[in-house]
User: Fold these one by one.
Assistant:
Number 1:
Amino acid sequence: MAKKKKKSKTILEGKGRSTKPKCGLCGKSAKLTKTECCDQWICDDEGKYVLFSYERNSCHRNHRRFTLCGHHHAEGHSESWKDCPECRADFEKDAEMYVYYGINEYNFGKLDNPPSFEPTKCIDCGNIIVLSEGGYSSRGNEYWCEKCTDSNIQNMFR
Ligand SMILES: [Zn+2]
Ligand SMILES: [Zn+2]
Ligand SMILES: [Zn+2]
Ligand SMILES: [Zn+2]
């Protein structure tokens, strides 16, 4: 009589492997909460943010403010942000920011097929301006790089 072989267990029973939740962005596990938008573990660190400091040291805030996921949730869209036509429409004139919001390091999952976009150029010197890095100035569809912005300001006071 052939005895049936016991199936070997392949599931690791948490040995050495910590199941402790950690922030999906920075990996810390000190004080966590779940994101409202996508139910992921994230640092509960909004309190750390100093108003108007523009620092980006809060995982929670960064995800909420600088991702499509956060935008999508805040605007009350339906379905997945990754193929949300409403999100796309919100950034219609700003594909560069759409892509940045979709692929930056504050995302848990990145935009699969980010659209291509024309780089933004300074109308004075022609240098490419990376909108997500800031430092530029704009009026309507015109953009000035940091350098030209500075010299424009200096000219004003000359
Ligand atoms: Zn974190
Ligand atoms: Zn989210
Ligand atoms: Zn959306
Ligand atoms: Zn310039």
Number 2:
Amino acid sequence: MKIALFGYGKMGKEIEKIALERKNEIGLIVDMHNADSFSIDELKKCDAAIEFTTPDTAIANIYKCFNAGVPVVVGTTGWLKNWDEVAKVCKEKNQTLFWASNFSVGVNLFFQLNEQLARLMNPHKEYNVTMEEIHHVHKKDAPSGTGITLAEGVLKNMPGKTKWVNNITSKPEELELVSKRIDEVPGTHSVRYSSEVDYIEITHLAHSRKGFALGAVLAAEFVKGKKGIYGMKDLLNI
Ligand SMILES: NC(=O)c1ccc[n+]([C@@H]2O[C@H](COP(=O)([O-])OP(=O)(O)OC[C@H]3O[C@@H](n4cnc5c(N)ncnc54)[C@H](O)[C@@H]3O)[C@@H](O)[C@H]2O)c1
């Protein structure tokens, strides 16, 4: 199939490699230099688009894909406060949007494990839960989209915690989600339960960006010819 790439940075280049390995074609590459001048006709010839740009540019790119009638797979994080509006436009225009805070298969299994662990820990009030995410120093948003998904997974299963905060906190109703930016770390997320007598930690550590890129290409192959809003649960059937 023919794929349009929005964003040709660290992720865009990795996605291109995997897409070509899987015998797909790259029909169009859009980055900051041609964002306002690329050919919409070239976009219309693509079976799907993959969008990994910046929090400030993602929504305009998504709308360009909707207007061109091309299903769009979005990995950009940091724009989700506008999710409801984008989802509404997608439905009104009968278009296709696939979004994931994290495209790696391992992380999506980790999301399930995180929710199960939170459910198990919930009755045991002697444990306090905290979270940490570590990424490379170039990352523009904090906390990470994956960190937010994990935090929401904990909040859903632990009614004693009412919201996450992106800093150290000692308020019992707040879930601490600390962000660290270190060197070139691709992405590490930890959820920790600590009591006076012991400590439980689950961690997902990405060795490279390859897992995210493969998931995004699989998602593009999945949305070809489909209408509606999808996520990793649909792709992985979990
Ligand atoms: N969901 C996931 O699994 C996942 C994984 C890794 C990264 N991300 C997210 O993906 C995004 C991109 O990450 P990256 O590491 O590739 O960033 P990057 O800074 O390396 O690349 C960003 C690219 O966006 C391009 N760009 C800027 N404005 C544009 C516009 N208006 N139209 C088209 N392209 C434009 C830039 O030219 C650049 O090529 C970030 O939001 C990051 O958090 C998500």
Number 3:
Amino acid sequence: MILVTGATGIAGSEVVRAVRRRGERVRAFVRDPQRAREKLGDEIELAVGDFADPRSVRAALEGVDDVVLSCADDPRRVAWETSAIDAAAAAGVRRIVKLSAVGAAPGSPVAFWDWHDRVERHLTASAVPGVILRSSFHMTNVLAGAEQVAGAGRLYAPAGAARIAMIDPRDVGAVAAAVLSTAGHDGRTYVLTGPAAITYVQVAAALSAATGRAVEFTDVPDHDAKQGLIQAGLPDVVAEQVVQVFAMARRGAAEQVTATVASLTGRPPRDVAAFARDHARLFAPAAVGAGR
Ligand SMILES: NC(=O)c1ccc[n+]([C@@H]2O[C@H](COP(=O)([O-])OP(=O)(O)OC[C@H]3O[C@@H](n4cnc5c(N)ncnc54)[C@H](OP(=O)(O)O)[C@@H]3O)[C@@H](O)[C@H]2O)c1
């Protein structure tokens, strides 16, 4: 039995799907069962709970062999994830696969990456063998700008000329499932990227090709980007960190391309053209006001 936390999230839900495709038993740790059913279907076993409620975490771990640990970018993540690791150790879990980020490092200017580093180190020091999957920037981040792409043909981001080896989260799910179903990964840290380091001009070109309508990238100053994210509903602290992620990317922090997805799953990572085609409906003019 594999427990996936953050299972209603972008990466967590892809892990659930990929693990199921491999025929493994999976239990999803979720806060909202209705949202989970909508996202994951009716057949997935649910453990309803919250990282902040240790009893619910312990209950979810009953009878579990492996855990995929995913969580939101929240200032409480270190406390939540380290407690879950301790609970998994106490429950006799045999392996934890932690979803982390490229850039995870102590004292990183991106708080998300500092938090990931702290959880990684806690896992490494724990009694449970761990596998760390450090993903590059998710292609799904581009969906945050879908409405403006659909409405005005403009892709806004504070990306400048950053080259980003962005990855489709479906490939993160596929790697997690592969790691869980084969031996020899305990103690390893894998860096997961897409097939190429690309600029936002190239992302806009892929969206143009997929929607059949010109999409242009517009660089945005950090301050304006942060205000836009706050207006879109992100907490101040998260908006600040998202802007920091782009600042680091402009300095080359997301350029590295690895062959890990292909070597672990047996197929190349999806490229941005495939991502754009598969989500074209959300970026096309008809999506405006269509209640996506
Ligand atoms: N986005 C990127 O570019 C990127 C790149 C590299 C690594 N990562 C990492 O990948 C991981 C997953 O990212 P994601 O985009 O899939 O995140 P996400 O879509 O924001 O999902 C976060 C998940 O955590 C759940 N969650 C939040 N608070 C919780 C709580 N108190 N108790 C239980 N569950 C809780 C959420 O549940 P609800 O649905 O109930 O809110 C959701 O399922 C994160 O650690 C992130 O740092 C992201």
Number 4:
Amino acid sequence: MAYGNGGDKKLLRKAFPAGSTSLGNDLLTAGKRADLMLLRERYLAAANAFVDAVFTPEPLCGTMSGEDIEKVLVAKQKDLTGINKAYAEKARLSITPIILTVEKHYLGRIVGRLAHCASRIPATAALHAPAATRIYFNIPESIQDRVSPATLENLEEQVKALGSRKTLALVARVVLEGNHEGLDAETVLVIQTVHAECLERYRKPEFGKDPRYTCQIHLDYRVVRGPEADPKRLDGVARILVDKANRKFRTFLEISHPIPRGEAIRIPVVMSPKVLSKFDRNARIGSLIVEVGPDTVHVKTVASKQIPGTPDINDCLHLVARDFGYKNTVTLSVLRRDREIDPAEMKSILDFDKGEARAYLESHEHPMDNVVARRRFSGQAFLRSIGSTCARIDLLASEIKLGYNKLERLKSNICSYLGTEPDGRFADDLALHVKDPLIKQLCGKFFRLLNHIWHLKGLRLKLFAKINGLKKAWFGFLSNQELKLAIQYQAAVVREDLTVMAKEKDAPDYKGRTFNKMINNGSKGQYLRRATDKLLWDGILEVAIPSFYTSTACPTHARVDATMRKGDSFRCPLCGRDEHADEHAADTIGNYLLLRPKAAT
Ligand SMILES: [Zn+2]
């Protein structure tokens, strides 16, 4: 992961896991554990206080710039007491990007949903999905029959013509001012509903409560040899101590106490010798991330280095080509660079549109005799794990939905007994104030069910985290293989350009909404960013070629024909032999810049 937060733009930053310590066993004395818990508590409290100071409940009313947010936070920091100033500052610095992100997502979601309000869930999808009644991706079932397709299509057109800023102004006019001028009732209903759904998902970040926001503290630190070094000569909030004489632990993390003038906390951290050697070799490791969880402390080091210069493509002996797919997540081909590449020609090739790409592939050829190595990585096991996890998520989702329906019925029952309106929330202690045993029983049922739903939602969050973990591990492994090949063969990496995405050739069959969301959308982009970060870090040149027709061309015969590809196999009638389709695509991508004008026949 490249790690950047403004600052010096010329530096690349990267976080490495450096070690961890469990808070659960007898590793730490009770006093130290209490200090760490206090640190976590104070830090989260400070972060939440900062959020309270700058969170906007309805960003449609207007948002602050990052600079304005920072000004409010700096003022707020002066009021904070009971926390070491250095920690307060670290907490403060983490807030602005989070606030800007949640606001951006909220406003972006409104525009995105309106801009695609007419897009329908495919019929094949509805056949398999448990709830087959929903028609539109972005319009809830509750209103889908009250708006005509024409209304939705018109609204889509209108939003696309307005662009996001003016669309948001329109939404603000409708929902904040109640001004419906020039809009029919159906359009108003759609805007109100989409807005309400987005607002429901726009929540104030709550550190500690929401598992997505851990207590992640960014610290400046020093490495010190031997715990006996004179602490007065050191500054920074944290340091790593290395004690070779200690039999049990070699490395300790020492961090400042959460309370001003408190004694520093020294905790043993299990670090591998490999990580330690990074500290030795790389003096540019500049900061430390300490994540204090409820039962573990994780340490990450943030290394930074100058962006290495990437070589000229003609200095590379080989090209490593990447084909990204589903059946095979990644197929790599290593090809010998068998001619000089003219920089001006390369530039024009990289800018090809679809027509130019076809003309180029049909007028240029290559004997395809320069393949040095191939690696194909099947994605079957990976997709199976993701698929089964998504199936569990879908099950939970329908259970949660059923639970909510039941909850609504209970609520309206209770309200009709009590003679109150069913909107608004029940107080947590409602059951205590109710006399009637029947209603008391219903109230008990209501809160037990509510707790159960929360439990299910927690399980669902864990499954989403599991999917992210699976993707991270698999993509991390694959991008490492790619990097190793590039280093071993002194190669540049050639891949398809993502900005113009060709239609997926082997996207897996529809397996439910969640599966689509987790795999089809964005996986390619996730892999690409991961690989690009690694290649950049190691100074390897990456070239993105146009993605048109790369899976349906035979460079040997300068032919483009979609019928040559059938599933896993590629067969050009002139070549007369079967090839693996993904390997053939990777070879074609790799040789794209090496094609030469077709010899006259
Ligand atoms: Zn051929």
